[in-house]
Design brief:
Layout: H1 2-6, H2 8-28, H3 46-53, E1 59-65, H4 74-94, E2 98-103, H5 110-118, E3 122-125, E4 130-139, E5 145-148, H6 159-171, E6 177-182, E7 189-190, E8 197-198, H7 202-210, E9 212-215, E10 229-233, H8 240-251, E11 255-259, H9 270-275, H10 288-291, E12 294-295, E13 300-304, E14 308-311, E15 320-329, E16 345-349, E17 355-356, E18 363-369, E19 374-378, E20 403-413, E21 429-438, E22 450-455, E23 458-463, H11 467-478, H12 498-533, H13 546-573, H14 575-612
Parallel strand pairs: 1-2, 6-9, 6-10, 10-11, 11-21
Antiparallel strand pairs: 1-4, 3-4, 4-5, 7-8, 12-17, 13-19, 14-15, 15-16, 18-20, 20-21, 22-23
Length: 613
């Protein structure tokens, strides 16, 4: 048998057996997969399975891919193969309710005309005149359409969510009605600073795909009956009648998602620009939060040294830690609530604190929270903030955990028991409300969670945090649809280097005092040197006495020495990180190969000893 295995015939037999095994598994087990990725990126989620199994009417998906035009694009063809395999898996799970068509839109063909009719994005390839189609168009029995114009490689991590969202939208008889009032330019508009038009925020574009958005007025006196969920974003201009309408909407069973803020940095309204103070950018919900058992001070911001974000200060200066802009990891998010359970990273910008009142009848469920290494500071510190490092001076944590977002449920009474002039409350209490409040609006802005690239006129968002996912999850949950929540946030968001960040924070704590002392000495030395040189005529510098020359040279030497010490302090800030990087290089380049080599040699030696024995 051993001679047969080492002979040419034996190798041929092994090859044929291998081919037969692969053919048998492809025929008998066509859907078998082994997904070893951490987030199971190649396995469809339970939410997708639920969407596909709940289909009541058939849906047709037309997958357009230019096979011949992409013949030299290996990476793109591999991605197209993955898209096709995932679509075939959708078709299999849907059990006849989903029909997949694979279409190659060759030039000047009816298929190409059909792709153009659906509005798919054709990408020109060089100077050959060829165009590449790589998109999806879905239709239902009502002739409604949903389209993914082009599958960009940068969005591969969100592939399943985009496909499931498309199918879910086609399966709905009508989109959930969202009533919205916003004090921020979510839908784009004119930038008052530059005078140029701005595109819609990515977060708004995402919810517009899935929900029917109905704009409401800031001075309304009633929320329309057809509105299922009310979305308030930075509602600083709400009239008393509008607050009364929100109160009555919640009491009659309407669901509310409110984003408020002590310092809305993205508020570019004329009032905020003219005011120049932090309170000109603050928003709240008047007496409503207190009626729901929540305290909120719109003049206080949470700062957290443990979660502070590293921000750039320009080319000439090293990055600084902004303890008012925070990165919240999974440990700072509620793992049990369906809104935050799938999320892994949230960012906030100058957020406020939501504090449950003692003895309140409502149930306060924190969704996003700070670390104990935090405290509250006045919002006025952010009015003219130029250097975020100044927030670290005098920082003293109070060992309290503050909450940036919460779900409020339970029995409540109206905040307007006597009504308003001309408005009487139809309801004065409710057995159970369902309200989600977020004490930050800046987290919706693109700059805090997503990078947008232009791809032949198509805006391609690349999220590095889950801020947009939180918004859509919350609206999904409040509107009664949880199917898409488990699909979202399975993509390739940036994963923070927690060990490196902790080393950086420890180094900052050790050397910050030294750096501040040296900066003060440098400033004092430069001041004294300027005083000594002030009034000196440059043409008369040779007339200085020996003592004056020695004093000036002494100050110059002292200035150079202080600058050298500053460079040394800043170098030592990253010494531990550099040491960690060197150890990782040694482990990857030398230690792991050495261990593998020793393992193979040991295995060979043991086998040889056994054969001799």
């Amino acid at each position: 048998m051993k001679r047969l295995m080492y002979s040419g015939t034996g190798l041929l037999v092994l090859l044929l057996a291998f081919l037969a095994f692969n053919m048998a598994t492809s025929v008998l087990l066509p859907g078998a997969r082994l997904d070893l990725t951490e987030k199971k990126l190649f396995t469809i989620s339970d939410g997708t399975r639920q969407i596909l199994r709940d289909l009541e009417e058939p849906i047709t998906l037309n997958f357009f891919f230019s096979d011949d035009a992409s013949r030299d694009m290996v990476i793109l063809r591999n991605y197209a193969r993955r898209v096709e395999e995932l679509l075939r898996e959708y078709e299999r799970v849907a059990d006849g309710k989903l029909r997949l068509q694979i279409i190659d839109p060759e030039p000047f063909s009816e298929a190409e005309d059909r792709a153009a009719e659906f509005g798919l994005q054709a990408v020109p390839l060089g100077q050959t005149g060829e165009r590449l189609y790589f998109g999806l168009a879905g239709t239902n029995n009502l002739a409604e359409r949903e389209v993914i114009p082009f599958f960009a490689l940068e969005q591969e991590g969100l592939l399943e969510y985009e496909l499931s969202r498309l199918v879910h939208s086609l399966a709905q008889e009508s989109k959930p009605q969202i009533g919205m009032i916003s004090g921020l330019p979510l839908d784009g508009g004119m930038d008052p600073m530059t005078g140029q038009g701005q595109p819609p925020w990515v977060a708004f574009e995402q919810i517009r795909q899935q929900f029917s958005i109905q704009p409401l007025e800031h001075d309304m006196d009633q929320v329309p009956e057809e509105v299922e969920v009310l979305l308030l974003v930075h509602p600083k201009g709400l009239s008393e009648s509008a607050l009364f309408a929100v109160d009555q909407f919640v009491l009659r069973g309407g669901r509310l998602l409110a984003y408020i803020d002590p310092v809305a940095e993205m508020d570019q309204s004329q009032e905020a620009m003219m005011d120049g103070m932090a309170d000109g950018r603050a928003s709240g919900l008047g007496p409503l939060l207190a009626a729901w058992g929540v305290d909120y001070n719109l003049e206080q911001v949470v700062v957290d040294e443990g979660l502070g974000m590293s921000v750039s200060r320009g080319r000439e200066r090293p990055p600084a830690r902004h303890i008012g802009w925070l990165e919240l990891e999974a440990g700072n998010l509620d793992p049990d609530d369906s809104i935050t359970a799938p999320l892994s990273l949230m960012t906030t910008g100058t957020a406020g604190a939501l504090i449950p009142q003692e003895g309140a009848a409502t149930r306060f469920t924190p969704l996003m929270s700070s670390s104990p290494n935090s405290t509250l500071v006045g919002s006025d510190r952010f009015a003219q903030l130029e250097d975020p490092e100044t927030l670290l001076r005098g920082f003293q944590p109070d060992d309290q955990v503050y909450h940036f977002a919460a779900r409020i449920q339970g029995p409540v009474s109206t905040a307007y028991p006597d009504g308003l002039e001309g408005l009487q409350p139809e309801r004065t209490e409710a057995d159970n409300i369902n309200v989600v409040v977020v004490a930050d609006t800046d987290l919706l802005a693109d700059r805090l969670w997503v990078q947008v690239q232009d791809f032949f006129g198509q805006r391609i968002p690349q999220p590095w945090a889950d801020n947009g996912g939180f918004l859509v999850n919350a609206l999904d949950n409040l509107s009664g649809s949880d199917a898409l929540i488990s699909v979202r946030s399975r993509g390739d968001f940036s994963r923070p280097f927690t060990v490196v960040e902790e080393l950086q924070r420890d180094a900052e704590r050790r050397f910050r005092a030294s750096e501040q002392r040296l900066q003060q000495q440098l400033a004092e030395t430069e001041r004294r040197l300027a005083e000594l040189q002030q009034g000196q005529d440059p043409t008369q510098m040779t007339d200085l006495t020996v003592e004056q020359e020695q004093a000036i040279q002494g100050f110059i030497d002292e200035k150079l020495e202080i600058r050298r010490q500053l460079r040394d302090v800043r170098f030592r800030l990253n010494a531990d990180i550099e040491r960690l990087g060197n150890w990782l290089k040694i482990i990857n380049i030398a230690l792991v190969p050495a261990l593998l080599t020793l393992g193979v040699l040991g295995w060979w030696l043991i086998g040889r000893l056994r054969r001799k024995g």
